[in-house]
Amino acid sequence: MGQRKRVLYTLIGVGFLVLLAVGMGVYNVTFHLNDVTENANEPLQRGEASAKREIVVEPEMDNISVLFMGLDNRYSELNGLSDAMVLATFNREEGTVKALSIPRDARVPIPDRRQKDKINHAHAFGGADLAVETVEDLLDVPVDYYVSVNFDAFIDIIDVFDGVDVDVPFAFSEQDASGSLGAIEFQEGNQTLDGEQALAYVRMRYQDPTGDFGRMERQQEVMEQLADKTMALSAIGKYHHAFHQLEDNMNFNFSFGDLVSLQPYTSNLKEMETYQLEGTERWENGIFYFDIDDESLTDVANELCEHLALDKEK
Protein backbone atom coordinates (compact mmCIF):
# COMPACT_ATOMS: atom_id res chain seq x y z
CA MET A 1 0.00 0.00 0.00
CA GLY A 2 2.76 2.44 0.91
CA GLN A 3 6.07 3.17 -0.73
CA ARG A 4 9.07 5.48 -0.18
CA LYS A 5 9.44 8.50 -2.44
CA ARG A 6 12.15 11.13 -2.25
CA VAL A 7 10.11 14.22 -3.01
CA LEU A 8 6.39 14.70 -3.57
CA TYR A 9 5.22 17.05 -6.30
CA THR A 10 2.78 19.30 -4.49
CA LEU A 11 5.07 19.97 -1.58
CA ILE A 12 6.12 22.83 -3.84
CA GLY A 13 4.06 24.98 -1.47
CA VAL A 14 5.16 24.96 2.15
CA GLY A 15 7.93 22.45 1.54
CA PHE A 16 9.55 24.73 -1.03
CA LEU A 17 9.31 27.78 1.21
CA VAL A 18 10.53 26.07 4.36
CA LEU A 19 13.38 24.20 2.67
CA LEU A 20 14.71 27.42 1.20
CA ALA A 21 14.03 30.03 3.82
CA VAL A 22 14.06 28.36 7.19
CA GLY A 23 16.03 25.21 6.50
CA MET A 24 18.98 27.17 5.12
CA GLY A 25 18.65 29.94 7.70
CA VAL A 26 19.20 32.76 5.22
CA TYR A 27 18.03 36.01 6.83
CA ASN A 28 17.22 37.88 3.63
CA VAL A 29 15.20 34.92 2.31
CA THR A 30 13.34 34.58 5.60
CA PHE A 31 12.46 38.28 5.40
CA HIS A 32 10.88 37.73 1.97
CA LEU A 33 9.09 34.64 3.28
CA ASN A 34 7.42 36.83 5.90
CA ASP A 35 6.11 39.12 3.14
CA VAL A 36 4.83 36.15 1.13
CA THR A 37 3.06 34.79 4.20
CA GLU A 38 1.23 38.05 4.82
CA ASN A 39 0.09 38.44 1.22
CA ALA A 40 -0.81 34.81 0.54
CA ASN A 41 -2.63 34.10 3.80
CA GLU A 42 -6.29 33.19 3.14
CA PRO A 43 -8.09 31.75 6.21
CA LEU A 44 -10.76 29.10 5.82
CA GLN A 45 -14.34 30.20 6.47
CA ARG A 46 -14.68 27.53 9.16
CA GLY A 47 -12.04 29.27 11.30
CA GLU A 48 -8.80 27.80 12.58
CA ALA A 49 -10.09 24.50 13.96
CA SER A 50 -11.18 21.53 11.87
CA ALA A 51 -14.65 20.20 12.65
CA LYS A 52 -12.89 16.93 13.42
CA ARG A 53 -10.76 18.57 16.13
CA GLU A 54 -11.87 19.51 19.63
CA ILE A 55 -9.27 22.28 19.87
CA VAL A 56 -7.10 24.38 17.55
CA VAL A 57 -3.78 22.67 16.90
CA GLU A 58 -0.43 24.44 17.25
CA PRO A 59 2.22 23.30 14.71
CA GLU A 60 4.99 24.09 17.19
CA MET A 61 3.67 21.47 19.62
CA ASP A 62 1.04 19.29 17.93
CA ASN A 63 0.76 16.79 15.10
CA ILE A 64 -0.86 18.47 12.10
CA SER A 65 -2.17 17.71 8.61
CA VAL A 66 -1.83 19.82 5.47
CA LEU A 67 -3.71 19.53 2.17
CA PHE A 68 -1.49 20.59 -0.76
CA MET A 69 -3.18 21.47 -4.06
CA GLY A 70 -1.75 22.35 -7.46
CA LEU A 71 -4.37 24.41 -9.29
CA ASP A 72 -5.28 24.74 -12.95
CA ASN A 73 -6.81 28.22 -13.24
CA ARG A 74 -7.21 28.33 -17.01
CA TYR A 75 -11.00 28.52 -16.59
CA SER A 76 -11.53 31.96 -15.09
CA GLU A 77 -15.16 31.41 -14.19
CA LEU A 78 -14.14 28.74 -11.68
CA ASN A 79 -11.95 28.71 -8.59
CA GLY A 80 -9.58 26.37 -10.40
CA LEU A 81 -9.41 22.59 -10.68
CA SER A 82 -7.04 20.90 -8.22
CA ASP A 83 -4.90 19.01 -10.73
CA ALA A 84 -2.82 17.58 -7.89
CA MET A 85 -3.91 16.85 -4.29
CA VAL A 86 -1.74 15.56 -1.46
CA LEU A 87 -2.71 15.19 2.19
CA ALA A 88 0.39 15.22 4.38
CA THR A 89 0.55 14.46 8.10
CA PHE A 90 3.33 15.75 10.37
CA ASN A 91 4.20 13.92 13.61
CA ARG A 92 5.95 16.31 15.99
CA GLU A 93 7.49 13.76 18.35
CA GLU A 94 8.96 11.64 15.55
CA GLY A 95 9.75 14.55 13.24
CA THR A 96 8.30 12.49 10.38
CA VAL A 97 6.03 13.23 7.43
CA LYS A 98 3.58 10.90 5.70
CA ALA A 99 1.71 11.83 2.54
CA LEU A 100 -1.21 10.52 0.53
CA SER A 101 -1.46 11.32 -3.19
CA ILE A 102 -5.19 11.57 -4.01
CA PRO A 103 -6.04 10.72 -7.65
CA ARG A 104 -7.58 13.80 -9.27
CA ASP A 105 -10.18 11.63 -11.04
CA ALA A 106 -11.35 9.88 -7.85
CA ARG A 107 -15.16 9.86 -7.84
CA VAL A 108 -16.28 10.85 -4.35
CA PRO A 109 -19.16 12.50 -2.49
CA ILE A 110 -18.80 16.29 -2.42
CA PRO A 111 -20.75 18.18 0.30
CA ASP A 112 -23.93 19.88 -0.94
CA ARG A 113 -23.70 18.20 -4.35
CA ARG A 114 -26.49 15.82 -5.34
CA GLN A 115 -24.22 13.14 -6.76
CA LYS A 116 -20.63 11.99 -6.64
CA ASP A 117 -18.11 13.84 -8.77
CA LYS A 118 -14.37 14.00 -9.39
CA ILE A 119 -12.55 15.16 -6.28
CA ASN A 120 -10.63 17.78 -8.26
CA HIS A 121 -13.95 19.54 -8.94
CA ALA A 122 -14.43 20.32 -5.25
CA HIS A 123 -12.05 23.27 -5.41
CA ALA A 124 -13.70 24.52 -8.60
CA PHE A 125 -17.13 24.42 -6.92
CA GLY A 126 -16.19 25.94 -3.57
CA GLY A 127 -12.53 26.86 -3.35
CA ALA A 128 -10.22 25.67 -0.61
CA ASP A 129 -13.08 25.44 1.89
CA LEU A 130 -14.99 22.81 -0.08
CA ALA A 131 -11.83 20.95 -1.09
CA VAL A 132 -10.78 20.66 2.56
CA GLU A 133 -14.25 19.55 3.66
CA THR A 134 -14.41 16.94 0.87
CA VAL A 135 -11.07 15.39 1.84
CA GLU A 136 -12.01 15.39 5.52
CA ASP A 137 -15.28 13.60 4.79
CA LEU A 138 -13.60 11.09 2.46
CA LEU A 139 -10.88 10.02 4.90
CA ASP A 140 -12.44 10.97 8.24
CA VAL A 141 -9.15 12.71 9.01
CA PRO A 142 -8.87 16.36 10.10
CA VAL A 143 -7.32 18.79 7.63
CA ASP A 144 -5.72 21.53 9.71
CA TYR A 145 -4.03 23.55 6.98
CA TYR A 146 -4.07 23.89 3.21
CA VAL A 147 -1.68 25.20 0.56
CA SER A 148 -2.82 25.94 -3.01
CA VAL A 149 -0.37 26.83 -5.78
CA ASN A 150 -1.34 27.99 -9.27
CA PHE A 151 0.48 26.15 -12.05
CA ASP A 152 1.62 29.54 -13.39
CA ALA A 153 4.02 29.59 -10.44
CA PHE A 154 5.23 26.12 -11.37
CA ILE A 155 6.31 27.36 -14.81
CA ASP A 156 7.93 30.53 -13.51
CA ILE A 157 9.84 28.91 -10.64
CA ILE A 158 11.36 26.23 -12.86
CA ASP A 159 12.45 28.94 -15.29
CA VAL A 160 13.96 30.94 -12.40
CA PHE A 161 16.17 27.96 -11.55
CA ASP A 162 17.13 27.29 -15.21
CA GLY A 163 14.98 24.22 -15.85
CA VAL A 164 14.99 20.63 -14.62
CA ASP A 165 16.74 17.51 -15.91
CA VAL A 166 14.50 14.48 -16.48
CA ASP A 167 14.65 11.03 -18.04
CA VAL A 168 11.63 10.85 -20.37
CA PRO A 169 10.36 7.23 -20.26
CA PHE A 170 8.82 7.24 -23.76
CA ALA A 171 8.06 9.63 -26.62
CA PHE A 172 4.81 11.61 -26.45
CA SER A 173 3.31 15.01 -27.16
CA GLU A 174 1.21 17.23 -24.91
CA GLN A 175 -0.59 20.57 -25.05
CA ASP A 176 1.24 23.75 -24.08
CA ALA A 177 0.21 26.22 -21.38
CA SER A 178 -2.23 27.95 -23.75
CA GLY A 179 -4.01 24.67 -24.51
CA SER A 180 -2.64 24.06 -28.02
CA LEU A 181 -2.85 20.27 -28.45
CA GLY A 182 0.37 18.40 -29.26
CA ALA A 183 2.40 21.61 -29.25
CA ILE A 184 5.13 20.20 -26.99
CA GLU A 185 6.91 17.03 -28.10
CA PHE A 186 9.07 14.77 -25.92
CA GLN A 187 11.61 12.20 -27.07
CA GLU A 188 12.66 9.24 -24.94
CA GLY A 189 15.82 9.87 -22.92
CA ASN A 190 17.55 12.52 -20.82
CA GLN A 191 16.76 16.17 -21.46
CA THR A 192 16.48 19.55 -19.74
CA LEU A 193 12.98 21.06 -19.61
CA ASP A 194 11.99 24.69 -19.20
CA GLY A 195 8.95 25.62 -17.12
CA GLU A 196 6.31 25.20 -19.82
CA GLN A 197 7.79 21.89 -20.96
CA ALA A 198 7.98 20.64 -17.37
CA LEU A 199 4.32 21.48 -16.80
CA ALA A 200 3.34 19.50 -19.90
CA TYR A 201 5.57 16.64 -18.71
CA VAL A 202 3.86 16.36 -15.33
CA ARG A 203 0.31 16.85 -16.65
CA MET A 204 0.17 14.11 -19.29
CA ARG A 205 -1.62 10.94 -18.20
CA TYR A 206 -3.81 9.51 -21.00
CA GLN A 207 -0.79 8.47 -23.11
CA ASP A 208 0.91 6.85 -20.11
CA PRO A 209 0.28 3.08 -19.88
CA THR A 210 0.13 3.38 -16.08
CA GLY A 211 -2.31 6.32 -16.16
CA ASP A 212 -2.43 8.70 -13.23
CA PHE A 213 0.17 6.72 -11.30
CA GLY A 214 2.71 7.25 -14.09
CA ARG A 215 1.92 10.93 -14.01
CA MET A 216 2.53 11.07 -10.26
CA GLU A 217 5.91 9.39 -10.79
CA ARG A 218 6.85 12.11 -13.29
CA GLN A 219 5.64 14.80 -10.91
CA GLN A 220 7.85 13.40 -8.18
CA GLU A 221 10.83 13.23 -10.55
CA VAL A 222 10.48 16.89 -11.51
CA MET A 223 10.13 18.07 -7.92
CA GLU A 224 13.14 16.02 -6.84
CA GLN A 225 15.22 17.76 -9.48
CA LEU A 226 13.82 21.18 -8.57
CA ALA A 227 14.48 20.58 -4.87
CA ASP A 228 18.11 19.71 -5.61
CA LYS A 229 18.54 22.92 -7.60
CA THR A 230 16.91 25.16 -5.02
CA MET A 231 19.12 23.78 -2.24
CA ALA A 232 22.36 24.61 -4.08
CA LEU A 233 24.29 27.59 -2.72
CA SER A 234 24.41 29.04 -6.22
CA ALA A 235 20.61 29.39 -6.13
CA ILE A 236 20.47 31.86 -3.23
CA GLY A 237 20.56 34.87 -5.55
CA LYS A 238 17.42 33.62 -7.30
CA TYR A 239 15.25 33.28 -4.20
CA HIS A 240 13.80 36.78 -4.32
CA HIS A 241 12.41 36.25 -7.84
CA ALA A 242 11.09 32.81 -6.85
CA PHE A 243 9.25 34.21 -3.84
CA HIS A 244 7.76 36.96 -6.00
CA GLN A 245 6.27 34.28 -8.28
CA LEU A 246 4.86 32.36 -5.32
CA GLU A 247 3.39 35.47 -3.75
CA ASP A 248 1.19 36.07 -6.80
CA ASN A 249 0.16 32.44 -7.28
CA MET A 250 -0.27 30.94 -3.83
CA ASN A 251 -2.73 30.81 -0.94
CA PHE A 252 -2.61 29.11 2.46
CA ASN A 253 -3.85 29.50 6.03
CA PHE A 254 -0.42 29.35 7.71
CA SER A 255 1.03 32.21 9.71
CA PHE A 256 4.73 33.05 9.44
CA GLY A 257 5.25 31.49 12.88
CA ASP A 258 3.51 28.31 11.73
CA LEU A 259 5.91 28.01 8.80
CA VAL A 260 8.95 28.56 10.98
CA SER A 261 7.74 25.82 13.35
CA LEU A 262 7.90 23.30 10.47
CA GLN A 263 11.68 23.64 10.19
CA PRO A 264 12.46 20.43 12.16
CA TYR A 265 10.71 18.37 9.48
CA THR A 266 12.94 19.54 6.62
CA SER A 267 15.74 17.07 7.33
CA ASN A 268 13.31 14.14 6.97
CA LEU A 269 11.40 15.20 3.84
CA LYS A 270 13.45 12.95 1.57
CA GLU A 271 12.57 9.99 3.79
CA MET A 272 8.87 10.64 4.02
CA GLU A 273 6.53 7.70 3.59
CA THR A 274 3.94 8.08 0.87
CA TYR A 275 0.72 6.28 0.06
CA GLN A 276 -1.42 5.78 -3.01
CA LEU A 277 -5.05 4.71 -3.04
CA GLU A 278 -5.90 1.53 -4.89
CA GLY A 279 -8.93 1.34 -7.11
CA THR A 280 -10.36 0.86 -10.58
CA GLU A 281 -10.14 3.15 -13.60
CA ARG A 282 -13.18 3.39 -15.87
CA TRP A 283 -14.98 5.50 -18.46
CA GLU A 284 -18.62 6.57 -18.07
CA ASN A 285 -20.43 8.67 -20.69
CA GLY A 286 -17.08 9.74 -22.10
CA ILE A 287 -15.73 10.81 -18.70
CA PHE A 288 -12.76 9.13 -16.99
CA TYR A 289 -13.18 8.16 -13.32
CA PHE A 290 -11.15 6.43 -10.63
CA ASP A 291 -13.25 4.37 -8.17
CA ILE A 292 -11.42 4.05 -4.84
CA ASP A 293 -11.22 0.60 -3.28
CA ASP A 294 -12.97 0.74 0.12
CA GLU A 295 -10.40 -1.44 1.90
CA SER A 296 -7.52 0.65 0.56
CA LEU A 297 -9.28 3.84 1.67
CA THR A 298 -9.81 2.48 5.18
CA ASP A 299 -6.22 1.27 5.49
CA VAL A 300 -4.71 4.57 4.38
CA ALA A 301 -7.08 6.62 6.56
CA ASN A 302 -6.12 4.56 9.60
CA GLU A 303 -2.41 4.97 8.81
CA LEU A 304 -2.78 8.75 8.69
CA CYS A 305 -4.89 8.84 11.85
CA GLU A 306 -2.28 6.78 13.66
CA HIS A 307 0.46 9.15 12.50
CA LEU A 308 -1.59 12.04 13.91
CA ALA A 309 -2.00 10.04 17.15
CA LEU A 310 -5.77 9.97 16.68
CA ASP A 311 -7.11 6.78 18.19
CA LYS A 312 -10.00 5.92 15.93
CA GLU A 313 -11.01 3.66 13.04
CA LYS A 314 -12.80 4.89 9.95
From TrEMBL:
Keyword Secreted tagged: no
Gene3D superfamilies: LCP protein
Family of this protein: Belongs to the LytR/CpsA/Psr (LCP) family.
UniProtKB keywords: Membrane, Signal-anchor, Transmembrane, Transmembrane helix
Domain Cell envelope-related transcriptional attenuator: 82-230
Signal peptide residue numbers: none
InterPro entries in the cross-refs: LytR/CpsA/Psr_CW_biosynth, LytR_CpsA_psr
Transmembrane parts of this sequence: 7-27
Pfam families, per the entry: LytR_cpsA_psr
Protein name as it appears in the record: LytR family transcriptional regulator
Swiss-Prot/TrEMBL GO biological process terms: cell wall organization
